[in-house]
Amino acid sequence: MASLNSIHHLKAFLGRLLGQRDLNTSTLVIPAGTCGRASGADLLIETARQEILDRGLSEKVLVRTTGCHGFCEMEPSVLVEPDRTFYPKADADSMVRIVDAVARGDVLEDLLFKSPETAQPIRSADDVPFFKGQNRTILSHNERVDPTSVETYIENGGYSAMVSVLEQGDPRWVVEEVKRSGLRGRGGAGFPTGLKWELLAKQPNGNGKFLVCNADEGDPGAYMDRSVLEGNPHSIIEGMLIGAFATGATEGIVYVRTEYPLAILNLKMALRQAYELGLLGDNILRTGLSFGISLVKGAGAFVCGEETAMIRSIEGKMGEPRQRPPFPVKRGIEGKPTLINNVETWANIPIIFRMGSEEYAKTGTNGNSGTKIFSLVGKVKNTGLVEVPMGITIKEIVYDIGGGPVGKVRIKAIQTGGPSGGCIPAERFDLPIDYDSLTQAGSMMGSGGMIVMDENTCMVDVARYFMNFLKDESCGKCFTCRKGTQRMFELLDDFSKGKGTLAQLDLLEELAQVVKDTTMCGLGQTAPNPVLSTLRYFRNEYLEHIEKARCPAGVCKELITYSINDKCVGCQACLKACAAGAITGEKKRQHVINPELCIKCGVCKSVCKVEAIDVA
Amino acid sequence: MIQDIAASGKQQVSPHETVDSKGIVRILNGHRQQRGGLISVLGEIQSQYGYLPEDALRVVADETGNSLVDVYGVATFYRSFRLQPRGKHLICVCLGTACHVRGAPMVVEEFERRLAIQPGQTTPDREFTLETVNCLGACALGPIVVVDGCYFPGVRAQDVGQILEKARLERVEVPSMVAASG
């Protein structure tokens, strides 16, 4: 690939790409992000390529591997362009049939997605309820772009935002555009991005300034940043280039967590391509802009998502946060001014400049513009990534897009904001999703994890889970966080074992307040949220555990017993599966569980086909 | 730990082999110009040895002019670093929130029971190391277990025996991304 020496060159390159582009030839688009590959996308790709080769269809059927499209529950899947036929849960055999059908211009009805209500096949991906309710401004690029090919990014409008910014030529205008767009930080706190950029732009530029992309997506249950980085790495590079032009930053860093091997791989490749094309480096496109980006891998520490901790980690030290001010925008990496934005925030930047700030701001609500990607996971039918305009209600996400509960249970709550967030009960699902209303409800937007919980989820257990996480991840610098999270965990652990008292419940609430008020960084200040929000909405569950030593959801092991009811048909599936040898019974007769031997592993319940195992 | 999940398919230096200080110096030299300094150095040492041998940390401290305490501090601050050698097969159970609510704790307990070790430990025959991870970002497919780089989606307690058997017989298929990274 020859280096591009001017904006004119880049435009000519784009022209060449568009000239060669073929939008009419049938293309099998196979999402191969981490979830896709974990579900077997590699085999689909191999099968499709081999089949096309064997049957001499190379001219008629093309294959494009992309990042995650979002409907992870249905992966591995195939999307056929140009008519956007959607085949969920494909395997090697169905792939062979799909190649054949596509070559003949046919559609395989039996392999299509079936409407959950009418069981009728739905042909186009755009009519599948999961996709229909979304506004996929960012995620739609994941369908069009092959993350390993800069050409597919450019021919889909990539780097055109950077060109328009460079041609306009005024950094102040760029900052103003971002301010006018109303974009707020997608990492969770919702700080206005344009304002942050303005603060960095005002810093003296003697020794260099840093831009950082925070890809240390530590909230368990959230993975939209992984998906964007894996599926469309050039959009982050382009966003950061625009940021560099606007703020005068000289060096960029993407801090990626080590648990995301594919994101690291795809980003490395994208960076290499951008350097080769001359889109990164010195005097980019001979416009005088010089900017380089390097990748720094994390090593598994949740607290490194906090900006001052991340800065230390980038410097190769222990990731302990420090007191602010001075804020990183004044003193960051190596003491130099540093601006940190989250992956999704950076991915929004090129979109703002392609659409224009006014157009961008039309999506969403006043003060909360644009779209937000959520990872809708847990006890919900359609799990995956959903991108929706800000201001949509929780109900619309969970029921219209998510398809409601799995089986005949009632959804009880959602949890947002990871360990810093909280639970919102089903009674409040009319709440619009935006930064402010979620905070008022005792949770927070966070980076976008949305974990659905049903009747079989115990809220005391959820609070205990998060506190266990936080006590492990507390860096230990502040005493109240180090000991406070530890002690809160011990109290919650006691509750889950039926050993708690009402006095301990008061102590827990007091402790939560102290930790909130007296710790230095965001981790400690928000650590009590899982406790406070579950107490606020699900106090009864706590009281059941304390006063009656009962776990209504049937989760807390010490408080439950397994038994077999008269629905049992005596099939012996549970008996054979029980590793503890606790189940006895003759064939075709109701079996019995010996509570003395039962280790409460739950295997019997999951192998039973007739719902004969009771947990109480 | 993912970085050595990625490396687990490759030939590794035997844990009992003495640390080659020249090799450590080579790794250090390779990282001098890079950001992330010590963390990326330790990451590379771990992907070569499977863990961070004490002698290697001493060489790193001597060569970089850091005190051993500082190097040890970084090595113990981050979850992905390991100070003990790991077994032949690495089992990593995701305990992210989505996996948790779908029953990941039962899966971990089943591994604990069958292997008679706790997370972070290695079986006495050095066949298996059991670890947990906070979130692998494949939340829609939970509970997720990664064995020697192979992702198992939707794992239930009763699947654990089969997974262990597959690993023992070296019959896990590693997705292309894991094979290519590391």
Notable traits:
heterodimer; A: 616 residues; alpha/beta; Rossmann fold; Ubiquitin-like (UB roll); 5 domains; five-stranded mixed β-sheet; 25 helices; B: 182 residues; Glutaredoxin; four-stranded mixed β-sheet; 9 helices; 4 strands; 45% helix; elongated
Find the biggest chain interface: A-B, 65 and 57 residues
Largest sheet of chain B: 4 strands, mixed
Overall shape of chain B: it is: elongated
Q: Strand order across the biggest sheet of chain A?
A: 9-10-8-7-11
The CATH homologous superfamily name of the largest domain in chain A equals: NADH-ubiquinone oxidoreductase 51kDa subunit
What structural class is derived from the secondary structure elements of chain A?
alpha/beta
Helix content of chain A: 40-55%
pLDDT averaged over residues of chain B: 85
CATH architecture of the largest domain in chain A: 3-Layer(aba) Sandwich
- According to CATH, the fold-level topology of the largest domain in chain B is Glutaredoxin
pLDDT < 50 runs, ≥5 residues of chain A: none
Strand content of chain B: 5-15%
**Strand coverage percent of chain A:** 15-25%
Per CATH, the class of the largest domain in chain B reads Alpha Beta
Structural class of chain B: alpha+beta
How would you describe the overall organization of this protein?
The complex is a heterodimer of chains A (616) and B (182). Chain A is α/β, with parallel strands linked by helices and 616 residues long. Chain A folds into five domains: 24-81 and 85-123, 3-Layer(aba) Sandwich (Glutaredoxin); 144-360, NADH-ubiquinone oxidoreductase 51kDa subunit (Rossmann fold), CATH 3.40.50; 365-454, Ubiquitin-like (UB roll) (Roll), CATH 3.10.20; 459-547, de novo design (two linked rop proteins), CATH 1.20.1440; 561-615, Alpha-Beta Plaits. Helices cover 41% and strands 16% of the residues of chain A. Chain A contains 25 helices and 22 strands. In chain A, strand 9 (281-284) and strand 10 form a beta hairpin. Chain A is globular. The mean pLDDT of chain A is 95. Chain B is α+β, with helices and mostly antiparallel strands and 182 residues long. Chain B folds into two domains: 2-77, no CATH class; 89-181, Glutaredoxin (3-Layer(aba) Sandwich). Helix content of chain B is 45%, strand content 10%. Chain B is built from nine helices and four strands, in the order αααααβααβββαα. Chain B has helices at 2-7, 21-31, 37-49, 54-64, 68-77, 97-101, 104-115, 160-168, 176-180; strands spanning 89-94, 128-133, 145-147, 150-152. Chain B has a four-stranded mixed β-sheet with strand order 2-1-3-4, covered by helices on one side. In chain B, strand 3 and strand 4 form a beta hairpin. In chain B, helix 2 (21-31) crosses helix 4. The radius of gyration of chain B is 17 Å and the shape is elongated. In chain B, 53% of the residues are buried. Residues 1-15 of chain B have low confidence and may be disordered. Chains A and B meet through helix 2, helix 13, strand 10, strand 14 and strand 18 of A and helix 1, helix 3, helix 5, helix 6 and helix 7 of B.
